[in-house]
Amino acid sequence: MRYSFLSLLANGLTGQKGWTPAWRDAAPKPAYDVIIVGGGGHGLATAYYLAKVHGITNVAVIEKSYIGSGNAGRNTTIIRSNYLLPGNEPFYEWSMKLWEGLEQELNYNAMVSQRGILNLFHSDAQRDAYARRGNAMRLAGVDSELLDRRRVRAMYPFLDFDNARFPIQGGLLQRRAGTARHDAVVWGYARGADTRGVDIVQNCEVTGFLREGDAIVGVETTRGTIRAGKVALAVAGNSSRVAALAGLRLPIESHVLQAFVSEGLKPVIDGVITFGAGHFYISQSDKGGLVFGGDIDGYNSYAQRGNLPVVEDVAEGGMALMPRIGRLRLLRMWGGIMDMSMDGSPIIDRTPLPGLYLNAGWCYGGFKATPASGWCFAHLIATGAPHETAGAFRLDRFRTGHLIDEKGVGAQPNLH
User: Fold this and answer.
1) Where in this chain does the record put each Rhodanese domain (predicted)?
2) pLDDT > 90 in the chain, percent
3) What is the Rg, in whole angstroms, of the alpha carbon atoms belonging to the chain?
């Protein structure tokens, strides 16, 4: 059914009895043209664009648990395209443009709110770095504004501008950035893909791959064998484990990233703010809770839970930026599994095994990239060639040295 004011009114007057399921809980068929492993935002977006843009509808999205049970429901909802390097900037700006029309396209309220993101700087050197990034953004046609201390104070007068260690000198603002409701994005893409004939198969874990020579021709699952012309992996923090079932070793490490939400408050932060002297970012949800996060926990793990030292570190960053939050109570916290690539940028490419495609290595950038990731991955699967905005996200760049090191800290599980 199509959602509208009239359908909402009609169901309200009839006891809410006219709603239909948003998508089918399909049983797997023996074979498909394309199998997408991973029922998160990237996998579902890929299925949606395969059907909508390329007309490929004999597709299955298989998920080991329920839809949205992984990182799609465990992030801090930020969307932005304020990147510096040519390999990243066109891709994330394409994603930003897709975000701007997503709700109308999917006929689903994803709660996209372009409230802006402000990256604070605290030194002359950091100001120069942000000026460089802002100039690169504007040359690429992306909005950016470099604000001085006075203009930042006018936006957020409650920040600690005179902190002895970290005085706020200004910030880089992207007004088109903002937030979106992570669960709603997943549900919207699931509904859109299902409407176009895609099978969404839940509680179906991949346990192995079917091979004919070197080629991948299907998957073994807990619900039986499923054959496919092409198999695509979009499993985020579990990329290394699933790829290992096919004999691949990826340039990826999995780490835990924690996020937090406070008790509800009246509106106080109308945008997204990042602390320039430490890794801390904060926004306010529509329910009133302050949503914030910081660094990964720093050790390899597949567990969706974190540890207390990072809680302390994030709290310290928040207190240095906004001392007034010290009286707030922490309502809850959660952890997602980050697939950290060695240069901090993603991989959208074919693997050395014919028939197997890879979407991985998103680090901190996964949620904001959801629409463009799905669009570009679908383009690669359908045509065999990379999309023009994702041409730099090659798997072999770690061998050839063509890295996309946005943060510039070398060959390690990057934190960009």
Assistant:
1) 34-78
2) 91
3) 21
